Structure formats: structure tokens, C-alpha cells
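Lab notes, practical 5.
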Amino acid sequence: MPVKNRLAELHDEITAWRRDLHAHPELLYETHRTSAFVAEQLKAFGCDEVVSGIGRTGVVGVIRGRKDTQGRVIGLRADMDALPIVEETGLPYASQNPGAMHACGHDGHTAMLLGAAKYIAETRNFDGTAVVIFQPAEEGGAGGKAMCDDGLMERFGIQEVYGMHNWPGIEVGTFAIRPGPFFASADHFQIELEGKGGHAAKPHETIDTTLMASHLVVALQSIVSRNANPVEQMVVSITSFETSSTAFNVIPQKVVLKGTIRTLKSELRDLGEKRLKEITEGTAATFGGQAKLKYYRNYPVMVNWAEQTEFAAAVAASVAGECREAPLIMGGEDFSFMLEERPGAYILVGNGDTAMVHHAEYNFSDEAIPAGCSWWAEIVEQRMPVG
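Output from the prediction step:
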């Protein structure tokens, strides 16, 4: 694998950073230790500017090249937060924070971008400015949006932005990408159904919310099967069914359903929200009950820009020998907010034959570090070459 020699030399040091971050996972915006570690390292590397507190706990480092004849500014983004999962890897560097785990590899993303930043700050072999972005709260907290809302792009003059995610099932150190819609929108909803509770032996005297909710769970699947175009991607999932009573002989007064709708087109996103409301209200009325729907528009569809995707793929091929076409992914990714503000691209780096992300036995592969770091560095050097 033709990775940069200096980054290969730094492999052990970057691995040590990664394992330290893995042992100390932090959730959402509470990345205080992680953010402080990142800022400390960036200052030690000699970054021209290090700014903390962008998007609450985000950190940004500015590295100027040996020349700046074109005024080019490229942003590189890594996420820092962990997941509320109890780790089951048994690793010597497993989580020391109960109930939190780096089960998505953000420890690896952060360590790889730090490694690239160290190399870039040492060599400065580019014409322009590199901005390294360390973002909190990717896992449901919209930290990408928070950083953009804090003026990230304007404050640092970012013209293009690039992101990376490890991916199990792809050979370690290889890459995959696709132009256009890549990761799905991710919206959440909560439905509160109310009927008339009573004794299970007298259902005729009740308005049965469990029956109402059961019909609704099935009916909502018609959004995908009968409303969405069958050649387009859409997922409706009910993930929680809670009754106001857990007794064997009580028909509960209330039932609360929670779930998610995911699509790869904004039109389908609108359709999903519309039909969810109509079916929920109609089903509740059919059974004589009432429904309250709360709908939360979370992450939009993540769309890779065509030119930047072609460039990112070429860089990946220069590092790994090839870059494959990535599959469509129905998971959400809040790098979408950054790609709505600036042209850019998001790529997958292989994590090998490991447990899937968001699994209690998942672990980032340290063997992917040289390739990931080299891709970050080459993005800067090839996009802003010294003439």
C-alpha cells in the first residue's frame, strides 16, 4: 500500500492516541476530554491557529502551506463522539466510562485526522490553507449543523470540505465512494395514542390502544409498500412500543410509539412525513381514539458533489491502488449539513472483517490508519499543489 513514509513512521504514535481515545469515550457534546486532547495536540504540531468551542465543543486547526498564491482553503472533518453502548470487546484499552463506547470508530477518525494534521504541519507541502475540523455530536446531536451555525465555513474561509468514515466489510485500507445521494436522511417521530383504559375482561367498555397501535404499526408499512416508488429507497421503522400499563389484566389508556423514517430523496422525505400524519390520525379515529404526533426532521440526505467525488476517488486510488463504488447507505450522517454549505465529498475506508458499527463488539482497525492519514494528506497536497 503506497502510504506516505512519514505517516507509516507515525503509525504507532497515532495508534496510541486512538486507543487512549477509545478508553475514554464521550457522548454528544460532552467531548470535553477529547476536545482538550485534540486542541493540545494541534498546538504541539505548530498549527497556525487552534480554536475551540465551535459548535459548543468542536475544535478547528488552521495550517498554512508554504505558499498561498491562489487563496485556496480546504476543510477536513472528523467526528469525535461515542455511543451510549456497553462495550463487550474485552480489549485491554476498552471503555473506562460505563455506558459509553466508541462503537462507530470516531476514535479512529479523530486519530487519523490528527496524524494527517501532524504531517501537514511538518511538511506544509501545499499552496493554500488546510483547516482540520474535529466535530462533536455526530451520533444524533447534529454537531455538524451546530458548527456550521457557528459560522465554521465563513470564519475560516472554507471552500471545499472532505469527510471519511471507516466501514466494516471492506478490505482494510481500501476505499469506496459514490457521487450524489450516499447516506439517507434520518427523521424521528413519536406517536402518543390515547383511548379508554379498562379491565381486560371487558374490552367492549374500552377503546383499546394496544389494538389501535398494532394496526397502526402495520399500516405505516404501507408508506413504503404502497406510497413510495418501489425503485426508490425508503425505510419506515417502529423501534419502540410502550404501554402506560404493564399489567396482565389491564387495557392501557395510552400507548407511545417511536420510530424513524429514512429516504434518499427530499421528495420522499416530504411524502413520508405527510403520510405518517394522515395514517396516524386516520387509524386513531377509526378506533375512536386520539393521536398526538411529534415529528423531528433530523439529518438531511448526504449528497456527494460530482467533481469533488471524482477527485476524492482519484486520491484514494493513488493511496490504495483503486477506489471502489460504495453502496447506498440508509444510515444518517450529519456531514450532510457541511455538504449543503460547501462542495465536497465523503469516502469510506475499509475496516476489514469486523463487527459492524454500532455493535458492542465493534473495534476500529488500527491497520487502516496509514491509508486514512495518507488520504487526508493527499487531499490537501493534490488539491492545492505547490507550483
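Observations recorded by the TA: The longest helix spans residues 266-286. The chain is about 35% helix and 25% strand.
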